[in-house]
Design goal:
The complex is a heterodimer of chains A (530) and B (128). Chain A is α+β, with helices and mostly antiparallel strands. Chain A is built from 16 helices and 21 strands. Helix content of chain A is 35%, strand content 17%. The longest helix of chain A has 24 residues. Chain A is globular. The N terminus of chain A is likely disordered. Helix content of chain B is 21%, strand content 9%. The two termini of chain B are 30 Å apart. The longest helix of chain B is centred in the middle third of the chain and has 6 residues. In chain B, the strands form two sheets. Chain B has a two-stranded antiparallel ribbon with strand order 1-4. A two-stranded antiparallel sheet of chain B has the order 2-3. Classes of the chains: A alpha+beta (530), B alpha+beta (128). Chains A and B meet through α2, β4, α8 and α9 of A and α1, α2, α4 and α5 of B.
């Protein structure tokens, strides 16, 4: 719908273009600006509210600079992550997270003191944190383009990424172009428009843009992650369920076996019928502290007239894909560079296997990773952008799929909603995406390949160019996820193969994947960057 | 999902149009913004946090109230007067402590201390 009609948007030039304005994107923009770069940040939505962090908040992986404590934490998560993490990256992440939390405190983030008066800095409330990041980005002189999803990357004649094109979705789909010396993808993971809290902007757009230039992905099998939400609502926040007991529809309790991850067990129970929860293990004296910890968890219950401490409420499982799962664009070196020159990846757009391995990134590791990888990527992109940019060379637009002519809305085109629904049918349910089997994965891949080959080329622009592009991005994402899931012929962490329930020591390795018309997978020995 | 823009409270600042991460609202020249694409709402409460006039009500459901087919109490989530009388407008903004004269809710954020607070109640393996 027209808002402030403009016929044309002038092209801007920047040293570094950051795509995505969540934590990774804003830390990247700040790091690049501090390195002297002129920076443009383009967000699909609004830098400050977009993405999982602003809505959900983070309990960070945050360990003081004490060698023994950090060593112990690294060792703990290395084991929990299936021994495919990278110690050097884990150490960098802890160090940079400590530094950046200190930076937030210096800027005046209102950290709490606990009941004994000690300052506690490991939790960030989403709205407060991201509002502050927006302010700091603006103060650093970064130009922010809100409501301006990127559609495709641009390359120069040497194949170096040199900017992007996109649309101002609130200005009658007008185009924007930013020519830049380097691009940081901080576009988030992909939750397939499942409605998981804050995750609907995360449709894997950056992965598709990168893959169109041959970028590789890693860890895409670690994507079968579901959040739990009350059946009526959208708040997929897991932490408070540590106080839950679960019941079947007939009122009989579901006993959780010791040592098993409760979420997976409850999800499996939900395959047989509705499951109800109640936070009955929380002692009354901490109810108020719980509310102050996560008002975004409790407010919807209050509004719905449900007391989660005393009332049973039905739960449902909502796909969080590679937002809480950890696969993403593979990194080729210590600067968060991808395998494509001039292109960097940070936050949930990048693989987080380096610090999470096969386990879920949750808020904690993903939050720490966003801060650290964003900072690293922004600095490295600024250094890369110092190379002289050839003047006058014409740039090539790299986008291939899901980019219909804006006028293509008529007969013969497919609505992006229809294509999205066909992709969602293969990934949104725990039956298919959480509890995997080779036979079912092959069947899903057959249908997804058909969507890619026969439907994606016919997507029309009836809901704007952004929606068309998102549909293509999700179709590609699902194929990478399931091809990798088929190749990892074992269970490890959040990748559950019911037909291969054990972890196979011989598969203590990472899987790279990529490709569009032909999706490939190959094993990557540990020790490579990711 | 977003259900109501209160025409009494709205000051036409279009902040909700600006900040919505899924572009649900449209600005209207010389008028209140409108909920133009409710189906795109992800129930993230960001608009309720940012609205300076407490003019917005985001219902707690992942579907429009109109589709709840008269489920128990559903109509109450579209009743402006009842919701206003029970303080339901701008509720998330109050929790996070935004707005003049309020303390940031993050000052009371008990996430870090929760394992210690809960330790007495839960077995050690369950505390996260």
């Amino acid at each position: 719908m027209p808002r402030a009609p403009r016929t044309e948007t002038p092209a801007r030039d920047a040293d570094v273009l950051v795509l995505g304005g969540g934590p990774a994107g804003t830390w990247a923009a700040l790091a690049a600006a501090r390195a002297g770069a002129r920076v443009v940040l383009a967000d699909k939505g609004y830098c400050g509210t977009s993405g999982a962090t602003a809505s959900g908040g983070n309990n960070l992986w945050y360990v003081p600079p004490d060698d023994a404590a950090r060593e112990a934490s690294v060792a703990e998560y290395e084991k929990a992550g299936g021994m495919i993490t990278d110690r050097a990256w884990m150490a960098r992440t802890l160090e940079l997270t400590w530094e950046q939390v200190g930076q937030l405190a210096d800027w005046g983030y209102p950290f709490p003191a606990d009941s004994r008066g000690r300052l506690r800095r490991s939790s960030l409330q989403g709205p407060e944190y991201m509002r502050m990041m927006r302010l700091q980005v603006k103060r650093a002189g970064v130009t922010i383009l809100d409501q301006s999803p990127a559609l495709e990357l641009l390359t120069d004649s040497d194949g170096v990424v040199s900017g992007a094109r996109g649309t101002h979705r609130q200005r009658t789909d007008a185009s924007w172009t930013v020519r830049a010396g380097a691009v940081v993808l901080a576009t988030g993971g992909c939750a397939f428009l499942s409605g998981a809290l804050g995750c609907n902007p995360d449709t894997g757009d950056g992965h598709l843009m990168a893959a169109e230039l041959g970028a590789e992905l890693s860890g895409m099998e670690f994507s079968g992650v579901f959040g739990m939400a009350p059946a009526f609502g959208a708040q997929t926040k897991g932490r408070m369920y540590q106080f839950a007991r679960y019941y079947r529809g007939d009122g009989t309790p579901i006993e959780l076996p010791a040592g098993l991850a409760a979420r997976g067990f409850v999800a499996r129970a939900s395959l047989d019928g509705p499951v109800f929860a109640r936070l009955e293990l929380a002692p009354e004296q901490i109810h108020q502290a719980m509310r102050w910890a996560q008002p975004n968890f409790f407010l919807p219950f209050d509004k719905a007239g449900v007391d989660p401490f005393s009332d049973l409420f039905e739960v449902r499982f909502v796909l969080e894909g590679t937002v809480r799962g950890t696969g993403g664009i593979a990194l080729a070196g210590d600067g968060c560079e991808t395998t494509v020159p001039g292109l960097y990846a940070a936050g949930d757009a990048a693989t987080r296997e380096l610090v999470t391995g096969s386990r879920s990134g949750g808020g904690s590791h993903n939050g720490a990773w966003a801060m650290s990888s964003g900072t690293i990527a922004g600095g490295a992109a600024a250094r890369f952008a110092r190379r002289p940019v050839a003047a006058g060379t014409s740039l090539r637009a790299a986008g291939r799929s899901g980019l219909p002519d804006p006028a293509a809305t008529g007969p013969g085109t497919l609505s992006p909603d229809e294509v999205v629904a066909n992709v969602q049918a293969e990934v949104l349910t725990p039956e298919k995406c959480m509890f995997r089997r080779a036979s079912a994965l092959r069947e899903s891949l057959g249908r997804l390949d058909e969507v890619w080959a026969a439907q994606v080329p016919r997507i029309g622009a009836q809901r704007g160019r952004q929606r068309a592009r998102e549909a293509a991005a999700m179709a590609a994402h699902a194929r990478w996820m399931y091809r990798a899931a088929l190749a990892r012929d074992e269970s490890r962490g959040v990748h559950r193969r019911d037909d291969r329930p054990d972890t196979d020591p011989a598969q203590t390795l990472r899987l790279r994947t990529g490709g569009l018309d032909h999706v490939w997978v190959r094993a990557e020995p540990l020790g490579a960057a990711s | 999902m977003i259900e109501i823009i209160s025409s009494q409270a709205c000051i036409d600042c279009d902040k909700c149009v600006d900040v919505c991460p899924t572009n649900v609202f449209d600005a209207v020249p010389d008028g209140h913004p409108v909920i133009a694409r409710q189906q795109d709402c992800q129930t993230c409460f960001m608009c309720e946090a940012y609205c300076p006039a407490d003019a917005l009500y985001v219902a707690p459901f992942n579907r429009p109230v109109a589709e709840l087919d008269g489920a128990d109490g559903a109509a109450g989530h579209r009743d402006v007067h009842q919701l206003a009388a029970s303080g339901r407008f701008g509720e998330y903004r109050r929790w996070i402590g935004w707005g003049a004269g309020r303390r940031p809710g993050s000052l009371r954020d008990a996430n870090a201390e929760l394992p210690e607070l809960a330790a007495g109640a839960l077995g050690p393996t369950q505390v996260q």
